[in-house]
Design a protein that fits this description.
By secondary structure, the chain is α/β, with parallel strands linked by helices. It contains 12 helices and 13 strands. The protein has 2 domains: about 190 residues, D-Maltodextrin-Binding Protein, domain 2, CATH 3.40.190; about 90 residues, D-Maltodextrin-Binding Protein, domain 2 (3-Layer(aba) Sandwich), CATH 3.40.190.10. The chain is globular, with a radius of gyration of 19 Å. The two termini are about 35 Å apart. Bound molecules: glutamic acid. Glutamic acid (GLU) binds next to helix 7 and strand 11.
Length: about 300
């Protein structure tokens, strides 16, 4: 991926936040995340299952975002992504007996998540990935493990007075190809002019350059971009959809999906989900972890 200067400065901001997070609470959250993501040494899985295969291989290929601060952002020093999605994926890998350093991270952008799962290019996708019926025709989802909502980001001071999606009529709004927010604008707000890129950091670049009036996607993604904008952007803060985040797995692998659902429920209960939030998206947004959602065992 091309790392824009903007994305690099976001990464730097993320690192600064991490460095400043030396408070006792921050350290506790970190310790807890490390403890609870302890790699299972002697775990046994039924032969022939994806879990047994991955455990035997000692590695897993995981698709995530590389340009979304708080959820999945590539650290330019380590070349590994960091964020809530990365932490959740790492917890799952640990339960498969796979250490964080043995995970192979692949950048999945919004539009290639289903094909990457269908082609076997990744074993699972943890990438701000909304569960919906259209996608379930092609792949399956474990989760949800978080619920976001579509929102709007504007330049600081909101010069166009955009308070919600109806105000996008006649405005130039940026989103990402293959995402649910872009589809929602196309279907329900056709008066808006939609500019589409492959990743959200390019929308942030376009907003900074004054090429678009607004950016729309999930509130938590925009919160990360606002945090890294040095005061240049603000969030409208009026979410108008629900976006339950799931973990994409190849279609029909019910045992793998059940396994991930078990791990998610365990993480909701043992504090590791909350610690993951506090360490990542929670640190950036300054918000406490919400109540975890209920896993949908469809
Ligand atoms: N959650 C939405 C989606 O899955 C928007 C975020 C994204 O594009 O990753 O499409």
């Amino acid at each position: 991926m091309r790392i824009t200067r903007y994305a690099a400065s976001l990464a730097a901001a993320g690192l600064m936040l991490a460095a400043c997070g030396g408070s006792e609470a921050g350290n506790q959250a970190e310790d807890q995340a490390e403890n609870t993501a302890e790699v299972q040494e002697d775990v046994e899985f039924e032969a022939g299952t994806t879990m047994a295969e991955l455990n035997e291989a000692g590695t897993i290929t995981i698709g995530t975002k590389f340009d979304q601060p708080g959820f999945g952002l590539l650290n330019p020093n380590t070349q590994d992504p960091e964020g809530f999605d990365v932490e959740i994926a790492t917890i799952i890998a640990a339960k498969l007996g796979i250490a964080a350093e043995d995970i192979e991270w692949v950048e999945t952008v919004s539009a290639n998540r289903e094909p990457f799962l269908q082609n076997g290019q990744v074993d699972m996708v943890v990438a701000t990935y909304t569960i919906n019926d259209a996608r379930k025709q092609l792949i399956d989802f474990a989760g949800p493990y978080y619920e976001a909502g579509q929102d709007i980001m504007v330049p600081e001071g909101n010069p166009e007075g955009i308070e919600g999606p109806d105000d996008l009529a006649g405005k130039n709004v940026c989103s990402v190809e293959g995402s649910t927010p872009a589809q929602n604008i196309r279907d329900n707000y056709p008066q808006a002019t939609l500019t589409l890129f492959d990743v959200y950091s390019k929308c942030a670049d376009a907003l900074a350059a004054g090429q678009v009036d607004a950016v729309t996607t999930d509130n938590v993604i925009l919160t990360g971009l606002v945090a890294g904008s040095d005061g240049a952007f603000e969030l409208v803060g009026n979410p108008f959809t629900t976006e339950p985040y799931g973990i994409g797995v190849p279609k029909g692998d019910d045992q793998f999906r059940d396994f991930i659902n078990d791990v998610l429920e365990e993480s909701f209960e043992d504090g590791s989900w909350e610690a993951a939030w506090d360490d990542t998206a929670g640190a950036i947004s300054g918000t406490e972890a919400p109540e975890p959602p209920s896993v949908d065992r469809y």
